[in-house]
């Protein structure tokens, strides 16, 4: 008797102990989300809002007084508000349409067909996103220019040559080169998480295939398509190098005027134009976020659609039609994406039409004998990869935390959402100038001057730029998640953090992987903050090396660009292969 | 061994390879400027001479590190750049370390620092042009930027040999060390070898040369600005915009930067590009077809863009800075920089190799605006140009 009471008591005590020891862990788990949100907010404040504010002040303050003078003079100027802003919005709208048209078929093929190398192809779709504009421009000239390969093919076929450059059309195609992969990426992720059960139910209820697509699949893709479109618009609205390189100065965007005002040290004008630009971009983002919130729909199952083989066992007329469409799209892709890249690679191995490895020899020589203050290829590769990995580690939790936070219902949610998306809407020149004045030069407090530079600052800046992509790729599927799943997990005693890890994350994993690819792409391709925060140090990256190797011949820059291409492609494949395992 | 704060700072600069790097941690807090808590200028050569706390001959001792600020291609160009060679030569002669600082925004970086009241370590700026000097002066009085950014050059040995036409600073702060001429570069193999560049601005605007020229935007590019200024010189400030309208109607392509337009030119997008008259130096060294790198001086003129060097007023190593400027003006160093920077020396008697003149072309008549003319007009002209050309 004694013995059994004692045993029960012992058991109760040990259970209590276990509970006690579990409590700190539970507390930690409960605090994870608010903590991440807090860290995100702090990072945003230090690395984004404060620096950008130091720039925007110039638009409203003159000689230490709040006058709004520079802003009013820009707003009252017909040239800026009418012509420049008008053209900027016009080309951004056209670029967006073209990018969506070019990107959607890619998502269809990647999400709906099975073929060898699909996974790899899906990984490398992000490669164009990271290429320095100067290389893209060179590739476009070599492909579509007056003496480009397209005209060589046309004349070989006995057709008249076309003169495509410089023109508005060239700007649009180059913007599509950068942004169509973004549309493809976001939509593929959404398509891959469409519930197969819902489609089958619709079909079994007698809906035609087309009808099922329109009523079941399309509504689930639409937020992703609009995400891609909104991002494309915002990016092309702030486009700078591409219009200047491929359109010529008659097609100058507002960003060109910001750059030249900054170059002439006209800060008031630069800041005012930046306010105007950011105002438009942020309004559009906010509009989109409102739409996305309304779009939230319930979803039940988690089984995804099965892919069809690209080469079917038997051919029907419909199958032939679809495969022909795929082939046609392949031709367009080859022309828009592969030809400029191939031209760039060709430029790296040729001088005046002769094949030579001089450019690569230059890279090796610079590596071997370059002075310590010169940019060398190998450290650039290593830095790029290290920064990308670190950005991934920082931006992924930040993005998921903000994604979870902004899909909850609370007052002022859209404001938090818009504020957290703002890094997308502010141009690189403004962020760069802000980082320079706010952080590299530092700020004074308590008799000390605090400065922020170096590798840690670069990673933080990359993470701030990248995490909105994670948010945007995980928020819509999180929103569509069945609340009942989360609630039952919570009712069964799982902590909030555990629910996220065990229930929500696996369900939105394609979005997380897509966000991870974006984070890597943003980090590898980033130029402005890297070059400012790495000022004079050894923390330069591959794009910085490309820019430094530009000179009177294209070889060294294109060779470095080819290295960038190869390293980046490999990095993406690794990200997706490793990321893909979580689904198991 | 040397453990004064100033020494450690200087040594740190040397180790880091560049100034202004706060290391891997990325964050730093330093006491704000304050005479009593400002140990960082410990080894200024001036202070040594005045305070006399250091042993040794006070008149001879100098700071042991010179921080030279310059634009990135000066040290980092893919072909040749004078940076590494200059550092080696200078250090071999002087018992000092030369550290380069190459901010991406070039001189604007220092102007912005001055306005924000933030110290910087650079002692000399190398690669300054008239426009940049005007920018620096125009910002004076803003924020905490009070005195001139640069100090007067004073008695720099050898500066009397600098060609008269190149001196661009009326206050004698900037000393020219090389010059380039902005001209047309053209491709004689185009049109099946029939193409020949026009001789004059007038011809350039005729239908014979429709869509044949690539130029650069004066608001975003130095060569673009020089070419625009050349048209202002040729047509006057009342006529140059109309001339540009004619060029625009004639299909001129205006791109954003020199590298954009030069790569378009290399892709044979058009037979002519606005570039430098030293273009053949690279092409010859690379064994490229010189027919594709012909030089044309319109109206027999070339716009001269002299590059100067100047000592920052805040430099804590003024004596070493002056030695450096004197060193750069020596004939053999002038020749070395000119060849590696692919430019012309600032003095007449630099011992350049025989064939250099064969590839580096000088115009019969160099054209340039003075500091005073540009100070009054440059921003007006570029703004007018942008408003006329863009959105048109």
UniProtKB/TrEMBL annotation, chain A:
The chain crosses the membrane at residues 31-50, 89-111, 123-144, 164-183, 221-247, 267-289, 324-347, 385-406, 418-440, 446-470, 557-575. Coiled coil: none annotated. GO terms for cellular component: plasma membrane. Keywords: Cell inner membrane, Cell membrane, Membrane, Transmembrane, Transmembrane helix, Transport. It is a multi-pass membrane protein. It is found in: Cell inner membrane; Cell membrane. The keyword Amino-acid biosynthesis does not apply. Its main location: membrane. CDD domains: TM_PBP2. Gene3D superfamilies: MetI-like. It holds the Pfam family BPD_transp_1. Residues 85-288, 381-575 form the ABC transmembrane type-1 domain. Belongs to the binding-protein-dependent transport system permease family. This is ABC transporter permease. It comes from Halobaculum marinum.
UniProtKB/TrEMBL annotation, chain B:
The keyword Transcription does not apply. SUPFAM superfamilies: Periplasmic binding protein-like II (SSF53850). The keyword Signal applies. Keywords: Signal. InterPro entries: SBP, TAT_signal, TAT_signal_bac_arc, ThiB-like. Residues 29-61 are annotated as: Disordered. This is Thiamine ABC transporter substrate binding subunit. It comes from Halobaculum marinum.
């Amino acid at each position: 008797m004694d013995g059994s009471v004692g045993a029960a008591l012992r058991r109760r005590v040990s259970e209590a102990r276990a509970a006690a020891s579990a409590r700190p862990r539970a507390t930690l788990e409960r605090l994870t989300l608010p903590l991440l949100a807090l860290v995100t907010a702090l990072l945003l404040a230090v690395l984004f809002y404060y620096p950008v504010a130091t720039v925007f002040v110039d638009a409203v303050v003159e000689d230490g007084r709040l006058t709004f003078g520079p802003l009013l003079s820009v707003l009252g100027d017909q040239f800026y508000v009418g012509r420049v802003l008008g053209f900027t919005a016009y080309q951004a709208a056209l670029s967006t349409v073209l990018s969506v048209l070019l990107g959607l078929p890619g998502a269809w093929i990647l999400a709906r067909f099975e073929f060898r190398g699909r996974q790899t192809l899906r990984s490398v779709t992000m490669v164009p996103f990271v290429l320095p504009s100067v290389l893209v421009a060179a590739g476009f000239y070599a492909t579509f220019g007056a003496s480009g390969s397209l005209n060589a093919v046309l004349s070989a076929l006995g057709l008249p040559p076309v003169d495509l450059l410089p023109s508005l059309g060239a700007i649009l195609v180059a913007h599509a080169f950068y942004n169509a992969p973004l549309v493809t990426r976001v939509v593929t992720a959404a398509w891959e998480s469409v519930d197969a059960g819902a489609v089958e139910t619709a079909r079994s209820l007698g809906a035609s295939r087309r009808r099922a697509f329109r009523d079941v699949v399309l509504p689930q893709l639409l937020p992703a398509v609009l995400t891609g479109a909104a991002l494309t618009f915002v990016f092309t609205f702030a486009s700078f190098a591409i219009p200047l390189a491929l359109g010529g100065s008659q097609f100058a965007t507002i960003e060109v005027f910001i750059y030249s005002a900054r170059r002439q040290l006209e800060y008031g004008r630069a800041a005012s134009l930046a306010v105007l630009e950011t105002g438009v971009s942020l309004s559009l983002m906010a509009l989109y976020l409102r739409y996305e919130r309304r779009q939230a729909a319930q979803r039940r199952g988690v089984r995804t659609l099965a892919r069809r083989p690209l080469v079917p066992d038997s051919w029907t007329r419909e199958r032939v039609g679809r495969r022909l469409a795929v082939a046609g799209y392949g031709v367009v892709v080859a022309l828009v994406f592969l030809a400029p890249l191939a031209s760039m690679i060709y430029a790296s191995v040729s001088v005046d039409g002769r094949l030579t490895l001089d450019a690569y020899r230059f890279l090796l020589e610079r590596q071997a004998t370059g002075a310590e203050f010169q940019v060398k290829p190998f450290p650039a590769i290593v830095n790029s990869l290290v920064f990308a990995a670190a950005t991934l580690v920082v931006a992924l939790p930040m993005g998921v935390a903000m994604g979870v936070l902004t899909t909850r219902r609370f007052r002022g949610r859209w404001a938090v959402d818009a504020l957290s998306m703002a890094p997308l809407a502010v141009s690189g020149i403004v962020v760069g100038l802000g980082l320079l004045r706010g952080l590299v030069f530092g700020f004074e407090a308590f008799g000390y001057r605090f400065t922020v530079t170096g590798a840690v600052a670069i990673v933080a800046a990359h993470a701030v730029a990248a995490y909105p992509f994670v948010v945007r790729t995980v928020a819509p599927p999180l929103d569509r998640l069945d609340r009942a799943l989360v609630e039952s997990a919570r009712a069964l005693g799982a902590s909030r953090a555990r629910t996220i890890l065990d229930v929500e994350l696996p369900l939105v994993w394609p979005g997380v992987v897509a966000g991870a690819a974006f984070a890597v792409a943003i980090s590898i391709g980033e130029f402005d903050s890297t070059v400012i925060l790495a000022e004079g140090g050894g923390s330069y990256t591959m794009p910085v090396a490309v820019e430094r190797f530009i000179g009177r011949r294209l070889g060294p820059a294109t060779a470095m660009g080819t290295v960038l291409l190869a390293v980046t492609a490999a990095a993406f494949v690794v990200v997706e292969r490793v990321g893909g395992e979580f689904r198991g | 061994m040397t453990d004064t704060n100033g020494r450690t700072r200087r040594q740190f600069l040397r180790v880091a390879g560049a100034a202004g790097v706060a290391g891997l941690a990325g964050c730093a807090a330093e006491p704000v400027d304050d005479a009593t808590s400002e140990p960082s200028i410990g080894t200024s050569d001036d202070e040594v001479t005045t305070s006399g706390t250091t042993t040794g001959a006070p008149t001879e001792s100098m700071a042991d590190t010179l921080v030279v600020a310059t634009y990135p291609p000066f040290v980092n160009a893919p072909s040749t750049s004078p940076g590494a060679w200059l550092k080696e030569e200078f250090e071999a002669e002087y018992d000092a370390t030369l550290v380069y600082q190459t901010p991406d925004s070039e001189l604007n970086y220092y102007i912005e620092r001055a306005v924000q009241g933030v110290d910087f370590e650079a002692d000399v700026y190398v690669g300054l042009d008239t426009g940049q000097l005007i920018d620096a002066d125009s910002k004076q009085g803003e924020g905490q930027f009070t005195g001139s950014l640069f100090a007067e050059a004073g008695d720099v040995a050898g500066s009397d040999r600098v060609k008269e036409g190149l001196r661009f600073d009326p206050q004698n702060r900037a000393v020219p060390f090389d010059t380039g001429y902005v001209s047309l570069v053209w491709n004689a193999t185009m049109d099946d070898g029939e193409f020949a560049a026009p001789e004059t601005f007038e011809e350039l605007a005729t239908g014979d040369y429709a869509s044949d020229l690539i130029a650069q935007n004066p608001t975003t590019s130095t060569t673009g600005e020089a070419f625009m200024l050349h048209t202002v010189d040729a047509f006057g400030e009342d006529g140059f915009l109309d001339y540009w309208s004619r060029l625009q109607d004639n299909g001129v392509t205006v791109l954003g930067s020199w590298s954009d337009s030069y790569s378009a030119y290399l892709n044979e997008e058009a037979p002519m590009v606005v570039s430098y008259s030293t273009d053949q130096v690279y092409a010859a060294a690379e064994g490229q077809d010189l027919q594709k790198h012909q030089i044309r001086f319109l109206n027999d003129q070339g716009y001269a863009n002299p590059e100067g060097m100047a000592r920052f007023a805040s430099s804590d190593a003024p004596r070493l800075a002056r030695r450096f400027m004197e060193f750069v003006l020596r004939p053999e160093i002038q020749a070395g920089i000119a060849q590696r920077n692919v430019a012309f020396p600032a003095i007449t008697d630099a011992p350049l190799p025989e064939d250099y003149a064969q590839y580096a072309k000088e115009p019969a008549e160099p054209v340039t605006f003075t500091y005073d003319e540009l100070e009054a007009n440059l921003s007006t002209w570029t703004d007018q140009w942008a408003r006329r050309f863009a959105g048109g």
